[in-house]
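User: Assemble these into one structure.

Assistant: Restating your components, then the assembled model:
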Amino acid sequence: MTASDFDADAYIRAAAPMLGFDLDEERIAAVKPFLLIAREMAELLEAAPVPEDTLNLAAVFDPSCGAGNDGA
Amino acid sequence: MSGIDPFAPASQVAEAIAAGTASAEAVTRSALDRVFAIDPAVNAFTDVTAERALLQARRIDADRAAGRPAGRLAGVPFAVKNLFDIQGLPTRAGSKINRDLPPADEDAVLIRRLSAAGAVLIGGLNMGEYAYDFTGENAHDGACRNPHDPTRMAGGSSSGSGASTAAGLAAFALGSDTNGSIRVPASFCGVFGLKPTYGRLSRAGTFPFCDSLDHLGPLARTVRDLALVYDVLQGPGDGDPACADRPIEFVTDSLEIGIDGLRIATLGGYFATDGMPEADAAIRSVASALGAGGPVDVAGAAEGRAAAFIITNVESAALHMENLRSRLGDFDPDTRDRFLAGAMLPGPWYARAQQTRRWYRDQFARVFREVDVLIAPATPFPAPEIGRRTVELGGREVLMRPNIGLFTQPISAIGLPVCVVPVVGAGLPIGVQIVAPSWREDLALRVAQYLESHGVSRFEAPHG
C-alpha cells in the first residue's frame, strides 16, 4: 500500500469510535492530512534497511529500581 | 539593573552581586520592572513570580551581609518554560486544560538546583501547547513575538525561553526540546541553546510531551552562561526514570581549551542547504572558521526524522486520550488534529519507528569513529512572519510547520548533545547546530566557545 491509495477517510471513520472519539465531518477532514503525512513517514520507515528478522527497539525497559529511579 | 545592563551575561551579574557592587534585590527589581515594561510587546511571560523572586533576592543579600558564601548564580534572574512545575502555580504546559490542575506542590528538580545556586526565578514562559509546536504561536496565550522583529515568530515550542533571553528580560531561561524546541527558538531569536544528551538532565517535575524524546536544557546569551547553568543543572535523576544518573561532568573549566586536535566536519546529504540562502551562509561561515572537513553523509537521517515524527505523534496522543474524548474543544486548533491523528496510528508503525531509531543511531556512531564534532544548520530559514503557513524551500512552496524542524529532528531522534550558536551576519538571526557524540556536551560547548571568541558567533541585542 502506498500513501496515495491509503483511504484515510475510511480509516478515521473506523478508528474513531474504537478509540471513543466522536468526530464530526469537519474534524475528520482536518485529521486526514496528518494521517497522510504519518503514512508517508511510515513508508520511509518500512523501507529503512534495518536488519531483517530482528526487533531491536530503541526504548528498552529497565527492570532495576536503583537509587533516584523509581522504576515507574 | 543597578548599573548592569539588562543584556549583561549571567556570569557578570553573579560576580557583581558576589562582590557587592550590586544587590540581588536591586537586580531583581530591575529585571521585574523590565518585564512589566517590555513584555507586553513580546509576550514571553505567562506568569511573573515577583513576590518569591524578591524574597529570595533579599535572602541572598542577607547571606552576603552575614558573610555566607554566595552561590555560583547568586542573584541571576531566570525564567522557565511553563511546563516546569513552579510551586503554587498550575503547570499549564501552554494549554487551557491544564489550568484546571491543582497548583504544583514544589518546584521542578532543575529549578530547585538553580535556586540552590542562588539563581532567582522571575516567572513562567509562553510556549506552544503541550510543546507540540515549532512556531511560538498559542491560541490561549497569544503568539510569543520575536524581539528582533515583533511581526515574526519567536520559534517553538520554547518560544518564551528564546524571546525572554533575547529581549534581556531574563539572564537565561530553561526550555525543553523533543524535536527541536530549544534549538529552533535559539536560532530564530539569536541566542545560544544547549540540548544535552538524552537522559543527562532530570525531567522530574515537568509536564511531559513524548517520553522517548523529551530533553530539558538552557538558553543564554553567551556560551559561558550556558556552561555555568548546565553545570548547576547536572545531577541524579531524582524521579526521572529516563535519567542516566551519570556522574556530573563539569564543562565550564574546559571551555577555553580550543579546537586543536578536534576532527570537525560539516553534515551533508540530508543536511545540505541548497536553496536556503541564510542557512547556507551561516553554515559556510562556521565551517570556514573551524576549518571543517566534509561534507559527511550519514545514512538514515530522513528515516530517523520519520521515526521521531511517529514516536512523537503516538506517545503525545496517548498522554491526552481522556481530554481528546471529553474536552476536544479546549485544545489549541493547531495541536488538536495532530493529537487525534496520533491516537489512530497503527501499533506496528510505532514499533518500526523505535526499531529504525536504534538502527539510525548506529549509523551516526560509525561517523563519530572518524569525526569528533559535526556541524549542521539549525533551521532552514530565519524567523518567518507570525501566521505564515507555507514557505519556499529550494524553489518549492512547502508547508511551514513540518519543515521548521527539518534539521533538528534527526539529531534529537537519537538524543545527541547539540549546542546551537547564533551566527553573525546581515539580517535576522539564524543558528548552526554543533553536534557531538553522546555524553560529550563538553566538545559542543568548546567549539561554540571558539566560535564566540573568534567573533563568528555572538548574541546581538535587538534594535530599539
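The interface with chain A takes residues 212, 236-241, 243, 245, 300, 302-303, 306-307, 309-310, 313, 321, 324-325, 328, 336-338, 340-346, 349, 351-361, 402 of chain B (CB under 8 Å).
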